[in-house]
Amino acid sequence: MAHDDGLERFLGWRQVRDLTGLGRTTAWRMRQAGDFPEPVSISPGRVAWRERDIARWNESRGSTAPEPQPATRPIRPTPPRPREDRVIATPTAKPNPSPSPRGSKPKSRPRRRSGPVIAEGQLGFDF
């Protein structure tokens, strides 16, 4: 818990997470409820937990380390198919577009305004 020279050890969040098995949000909620040790501010924007506080918290839970998660069944990779089974895609020519249902006239684009259209009483930003 403490070093031999009497200094107290501080733990960062990752170390606390590894020791407790808790997620950041769960630890925050437990702190709000008073069920988890409060962090100590060690510099502006940086907090840490006292190692002894985390150790006491773990002991109060009846465990010094988080329970190992049950191993999941390994997923076996699918072996590659033999080459003769593979289908090779070849590029094909694009079909000609079908004529428009309204006639053979292609669609026209909307016309752009030829100049600034400013109604009376509006400000123009044509600079």
TrEMBL record:
GO-annotated molecular function: DNA binding
Lineage top rank: taxon: Bacteria
Ranges annotated as biased composition (Basic residues): 104-114
Gene3D superfamilies reported for this sequence: 1.10.238.160
Keywords (A to Z) from UniProt: DNA-binding
Region (Disordered): 53-127
Ranges of Pro residues composition bias in the record: 67-80
Pfam families in the record: Phage_AlpA (PF05930)
Name of the protein described by the UniProt record: Putative DNA-binding transcriptional regulator AlpA
Organism: Brevundimonas aurantiaca
